[in-house]
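Model: Ready when you are.
Researcher: Fold this.
Model:
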Amino acid sequence: MIMKLESGVYSRFLKKVESLNKRSRKFNLPDIITVTEIRRFRENIKITIDKIKVGVFYRTVNVELVEFNLAGTPPKINGWTFFGKVALEKTESGNHRNILFEIPDRTIPEKYRSSGNDCEHCGHNRQRKHVFILGHDDGRFMQVGRSCLKDFIGHGSPEVIADMMDSAMKYIVDWEFSEFEKGNESYDLGLEHYMTCVCAAVREGGRFITKKECRESCSGCGYTADDALGIVVNPVDKELGIYRTTESDNSKAKEILEWFSGYDSDSNFIYNLKTIVNRGYVQEHELSMFAALYSVWERSGKQTSTFKKGPVVVNEFCGQIGNKIEKTGKFLKSIQYESQFGIGFIYKFMDADGYIFVWFTSCMLQEMEYGDNVSFSGKIKDHKHYGTEKQTVLTRCKVSKVEQMTF
């Protein structure tokens, strides 16, 4: 996996990786994580400095970045390979419905979705929070507790090995633990509440962003799950004095949860989401996993007409340069930028036919949100490419909200 990090963060990351590999070598195991530096370069990145109702405000900084390849190898001990970790959970009926955390390219068998506390090696059934899944070269699988790992690794300190493999898993799988704690107390979030915040984060950011995408792009933007947690912690915009979540966000969250109640798949990922939904709340370390439900819903194309994004983007230029146009469509994005002439704004719209328009101006639009229905008019100034997207640039625009309209 190719990643980018700021050079200072990269140095701290290397120390953590070396500490983990050092523990691996102590028990005559190969390095669990390898980091190969590819190049160092400088680049301007955007750092979020403020978020308001109409968009996200950034400042640009020039930093040294390091591009590197991150690889992880599950440790193989006496023919047994570490496949993952199972968080044991019981339903109200007393049956187990567990959460499976898998090493990449490894699949934990379905039977461990409902396995109990017993260790398949020693046969003891005792109270446990987690068990480990090992797979043998001959096709066998084994669910074991920490204390029984010594029979597979031949070492007198199995807990250390278990912790080491657990730590490796967190790096390789990118299993996230948030800092959403207060004292020694941890908090569980209601499904509808957190999904509402996820919908608000997508609206503010323009789209759903995964943590992997955020890290690899190094664009300075946040990822959706973390932005949603920020909305949970700080639900009110102090400058505008308004709640960051809207009724539309809540309605969308309800629709997602209702749609997912009838969705089915054999994958362990969907099974994990089902387990969280059936439980009725999401725990701290499951926030990124649960937030991904938004992406599953969006890709399914099952949204109601209320929440569909509208027409498919045409990706062609509209009209002739110099012509005047009058359009109705959707307000998509607002970005603030700095130039030698002062503070400016970029506004992005999509009309009812799917054409993309942008307007560069020093004017700030008030009371505009992502997805608002708008009427806009102006003069076509230019046709430009933004990456692979074709944008029609406008000047001297007039923009106003309109009532609900049908695309």
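Researcher: Now this one.
Model:
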Amino acid sequence: MPMLADRCQVAIKIESVVGTAEALAAANVVMTTERPTWEADPQVVERNIMSASPSRRGHVIGNRLAKLSFKMFQRGTTGAPADPANLPGWVVPLRACGVTCTVSGTTPNEVTTCTPSSLATLVTATVAVYRDGKQYKIHGAVGNIKKTYTVGSPVLMEFEFTGIYNTPTDVALLSPTYPTVVEPPFVQAALTVLGYASPKINVLSFDLGNKIAMRPYPNDSVGSGFISAFISGRDPSGSMDVEEELAATKDWYAALVAGTSGSIATGTFPSGGTNYNQISDTYPNCQLRKVGHADREDWLLVLDDRDAGDAALEVEADQRVDRLAGVGRDAHQVRGEEQVADERIVAVHRRRARLAFERAEAGRLGKEALRLRVALGNPLRRGRGGERQCGAQGGRESQDDGRTTHAGAPRNDPAI
């Protein structure tokens, strides 16, 4: 009987000891969409033997790593969030992407706040794809997150993890209890871009841009040559297509040349949604880096590039070309810029989820559009009501009627 590709699932668990694989169970399964992927990526060392024969004499397999990717829609919880008993399914993957997630508040104003960490503490995970009776696993893994908002569709979260290769083995599919919450679509929002309250977009995307490298270790017990992966920095980026406007309505080029900074915020959506299953994401302190034209169904658009330094993802507005930050086999092989900006990522509470990215870049879409490239600066969220100090970075947290916002002091770290 052939193995069926769609009979698959993904399980992930944070490791109690960095680089030590965890046993996975049904409780660790996350509800994904589309087929996950797993790819072995061993180091191939050519022998290059010199002899009278011109024939090759094989190679040696050295260090062994692998990559695992999966997608999931962003959804809330049934009832109030609680850690660890009732968290959104994307929290554990986010934690392994260098993001800190905490639950706070009282009924009915509970909030799960996720903020890109300082990376001072390494958090790794064991992740596996189960496919029709076979397990494909990595451990000592860290990842990266991309997030895409398409009007009328649920928000898509794409994770890619890099870790230590494990030999695939025969393991039956697990029997989890999947969440019953249905993810909300990106509609009935209150999107604002750099203070403009009526941007007509189709797709908005962000990439945390984690730069990942492997930690070499000759004494490892499984022969991989590594002790774990780690995140050496961040280079957030993203893209957005915006319908072009008259200069009197919104002058994107003026904002570009003036270096104007501002936020990108979705507002709470859907506005008529249910408690604990609404989303509100904020990407503060953005600056345009590039503006250009494209088209969608024969009307003019603006493609918007936003970032906080050099992007981990460069999307060429005319070509839709991605250039991702590379994964090196040691710290010296990390590709990309060293300097990154601070960011804040996602807070989900009784009515919404918040996400703040530090940067983004634009791609090309249909209508004639402007391409705006935005540099994301220090994540600053302003809220109403009683502010209280939180964190060692000089951040402030404000609460009002169950809505939680955060203000962070400037740092040289990026955000989701």
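Researcher: Key takeaway?
Model: The chain has one domain: 8-44+60-407.
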